[in-house]
Specification:
It is a single chain. By secondary structure, the chain is of the alpha+beta class. It contains 13 helices and 9 strands. A hairpin with a 2-residue loop joins β4 and β5.
């Protein structure tokens, strides 16, 4: 399409979008161009029946074709131009209705959010708090059992040591009362037996026990397999230091005592037996070469030997039928001990010479 054709087509478009007759007062050139546009399909003829009075006749009119409009409009504008006014109205009304509905829904939701009642808000807050509490309870229920064990360990009770008798016997202050302890699974050489000489390495064992325990606080552990008390009223226990060391086992593995099973197997029996075997093999303490001339197995005393000694001489004060003596009736500890042992020791302390039941009578005497 040349410039003249486009200008003429523009002139027609600007003047009338509908049907039209011949050009108004066209120039010769415009008329030629007009017919050329018709031949090229930019303008099309439209037959239309009209009435002149009662006579119907056909007339020819013209309009810009779709091809002609394509020069000025995109496809959607051409489509909009060629659809009828009724369809246009329906489309516009539909779009308007959709927009109104969408806006109404959006505004309604906003108003609902803004007009939540205080009771609803409080309920939601309470629900959040409840869920939080449930979560905390669940987490607490899932805590490892090791934490419970740690808590138990934190409340372990320690008792102050008030006296070390020898390597396997001591006394503690238990809730304001003096309690004598006998260590389970160990026997050390004798040093305080009234009718026996001091046994090999006994002094060293006693000294070691006093070095470690004097002025300290200890934790004790009982063993149901051994009972609570021995027949002398002493509490049967394992002793643990504050650093967790098993004192019974330590004395054996350092060569200060023997593994000792009184009757039934006990909790740490295998550990104690292994500790003695190791001390023997490494020649530690009483197992060292040349320390004790006689085999240590022959000098080890049983509980019966220590606390039920065989009395070969009758003491001066030998009345054991009733409580007729007290510590004031004796001048020395040895004399009181002789009567105490003769009458049966801890099992028959008829004269009450051993209040703490540690096997020693009238300890305050020289």
């Amino acid at each position: 399409m040349n410039k003249e054709e486009k200008e003429l087509l523009t002139k027609i478009k600007d003047s009338d979008y509908g049907l039209f007759d011949e050009l108004n007062n066209p120039s010769n050139q415009e008329e030629k161009t007009f017919h050329k546009l018709i031949s090229l399909g930019y303008i099309e003829e439209v037959s239309r029946k009209v009435f002149s009075g009662r006579v119907e006749r056909d007339i020819t009119r013209y309009r810009i074709s779709k091809k002609g409009h394509s020069v000025f409009f995109s496809w959607y504008r051409r489509t909009w131009f060629y659809i009828s006014n009724d369809i246009r109205a329906i489309i516009v009304s539909s779009i308007t209705a959709i927009v109104i509905i969408v806006v109404s829904v959006f505004v309604g939701q906003s108003e609902h959010t803004q007009t939540v009642s205080p009771s609803e808000t409080q309920f939601k807050k309470q629900e959040i708090i409840t869920n939080k509490i449930k979560q905390d309870d669940f987490v607490e229920a899932q805590l490892p059992q090791t934490e419970e064990k740690n808590t138990e360990k934190e409340i372990e009770t320690y008792y102050p040591v008030i006296k070390v008798v020898d390597g396997d016997t001591l006394s503690i202050d238990m809730d304001g009362q003096k309690q004598t302890l006998r260590l389970i699974g160990i026997d050390t050489p004798e040093t305080v037996h009234p009718s026996k000489p001091v046994e090999c390495f006994g002094r060293e064992a006693s000294a070691k026990a006093k070095e470690i325990l004097t002025g300290q606080s200890i934790r004790i552990e009982e063993d149901t397999t051994q009972g609570e008390l021995d027949k002398y009223g002493r509490l049967l226990v394992y002793v643990f230091l504050k650093d967790g060391t098993n004192f019974n086992k330590m004395m054996i593995e350092q060569g200060f005592g023997y593994e000792y099973t009184y009757d039934l197997p006990y909790k740490y029996q295998q550990e104690f037996k292994l500790a003695e075997q190791t001390a023997r093999e490494q020649k530690i303490g009483l197992w060292a070469d040349g320390v004790c001339e006689e085999p240590q197995e022959d000098t080890a005393s049983t509980l019966e030997d220590i606390f039920n000694p065989q009395i070969t001489e009758t003491p001066v004060k030998s009345n054991c039928s009733s409580n007729v003596y007290n510590c004031g009736d004796f001048t020395t500890h040895k004399e009181a001990q002789a009567t105490y042992d003769y009458c049966g020791g801890v099992n028959n302390d008829i004269h009450r010479l051993d209040n703490d039941k540690d096997g020693e009578a009238c300890e305050s005497l020289p």
